[in-house]
């Protein structure tokens, strides 16, 4: 779906994209010029401005998958995703900055930690913890980076009409260059400008959307009244309408959607954000708690304007398409509500002879669509085999206009509902979202393998910068290879954001929070918690969570073709790993710490002052 | 209320705005508060 389709703005598009890229390269150069020491390169010299820090945190947090991917999911599942926005703001900004940021910054300064794994390692006086965390980041973050890279590249390629591989090369090389040269200063300067572009783009999208669907309350009311149009397959797993939560319960597949929305989308991403290495690092880039306090308002407003807008626009796009979408033609196969004109249409089209035939999907099944009928008399017509048929017209819901692909809902909406010039603004918004997340991923990859693994194993601290830069290049190459070979979006790549967030939560969060707030926590408790969290998450993804386990295929060999060890148990195959792994990881951290020797007073003085 | 069918979704919609206001008010009332830099006594690095 080309959001710039049929415009005469190709020249303006090229000018805008080139100007944007030049600005980003200049900011990267500025970061390079202002990088004098390793502390500058690794944590921006601990002198970041609160506005830059807040925008950098937000822009790193929000990638194309949050706007287009999860926005499309909101178009399919509805406003229940706003619980994720609430957690993003309350946990991801307020709790993170007010309660986590201060202790992280203080301890990071005291222990002279330059990376998130180094903070954990020095807090528990353990090389193993630092190396384990660094390796976990280095092995799994390329998946997350590839997801962002594919999302950004696809837009870049389709909007500018260039080959996917050329777009992948241009897009990623520009990003890795300013990370390689400018370090975290280059990353944060570019993040701040990219964050500002994202803020403007999403702000216009929100105001314009509510304007064209008739205002806030009328559009919500219309969306509420559309509940009978929920497709049968979604209703069967608990979808109750776009302004309602899915049906809650346990032990029946009709509750599956609640567990998908709440455990994977809301909890997996909403809680997982608190232990993201590239985000926790931001707290160590400011010189005092005052800067953190000043960053809170910007962070809160920014996240509301990102995920809040994406999820509202995704859900409300159903109203737009149901009121203004291109009419679909066909015959009624089921009347849902005669008074309101709700029906299920078998989509039909005329063939070469002028007779009507049923449209079919790729599998050969009839194409059905829930519609609101357009007030007009049915037209009598003949099918190709001479039968009489009543042809009617109606307008459907977002996912039908997106060709059944939720990821196409937002781009389709932008193309059909928004003014042509907004296509360019939205393209720059998505480029900014992708590049700002990707740059921090490359930086975390480089420091993970350089500072946290190589330097810890060899003890050659003087090589930190060189090895970090080599690490950035290695991470970049791995992410590029993933992106090159997975451009058709394998299920693992598509789920990489939630997988990485969940893994970080289960493997790092108990150790991170225990390290900050629980003086009795021991090295053994931290190591046990990390290994158990990592192990259970991996097991759950490989053998229980049907979508991921089925894609990897290992479980199918063990069970003779099933997608999950618990395939026969309702709900279990859709429960997210964070629901299981995080509580067990927390319990292990506490129990092992209680039964092992507490850290020395001298060490605690080092950490807490 | 607000045209939203389910009280739980309405609560999420309202809490998004309340959480954002909380962030703004926290920043406003704590603009000049907060500890200063970690002192040298509380506490490796040319390219």
Q: What spatial form of chain B do the alpha-carbon principal axes imply?
A: rod-shaped
Approximate helicity band of chain B? 40-55%
The chain-level mean pLDDT of chain A equals: 86
| Low confidence ranges of chain B | 41-47
CATH architectural grouping of the largest domain in chain A: Up-down Bundle
Protein architecture, described:
The complex is a heterodimer of chains A (609) and B (47). With 609 residues, chain A is α+β, with helices and mostly antiparallel strands. Chain A has helices spanning 10-33, 38-43, 50-61, 64-77, 82-110, 116-123, 127-160, 164-212, 216-225, 232-236, 256-272, 277-280, 289-324, 398-401, 409-417, 420-458, 464-485, 491-494, 496-517, 523-543, 546-552, 554-559, 577-594, 601-608, and strands at residues 328-337, 342-350, 356-358, 368-373, 379-382, 388-395. The longest helix of chain A is centred in the N-terminal third of the chain and has 49 residues, at 164-212. Chain A is globular. Chain B is mainly alpha-helical. Chain B has one helix spanning 7-29.
What is the fold's blueprint, element by element?
The complex is a heterodimer of chains A (609) and B (47).
Chain A: H1 10-33, H2 38-43, H3 50-61, H4 64-77, H5 82-110, H6 116-123, H7 127-160, H8 164-212, H9 216-225, H10 232-236, H11 256-272, H12 277-280, H13 289-324, E1 328-337, E2 342-350, E3 356-358, E4 368-373, E5 379-382, E6 388-395, H14 398-401, H15 409-417, H16 420-458, H17 464-485, H18 491-494, H19 496-517, H20 523-543, H21 546-552, H22 554-559, H23 577-594, H24 601-608
Antiparallel strand pairs in A: 1-2, 1-6, 2-3, 2-4, 4-6, 5-6
Helix pairs in contact in A: 1-8, 3-8, 3-13, 3-16, 4-13, 5-11, 5-13, 6-7, 7-8, 7-16, 7-17, 7-19, 8-13, 8-16, 8-17, 9-13, 11-19, 13-15, 16-17, 19-20, 19-23, 20-21, 20-23
Chain B: H1 7-29
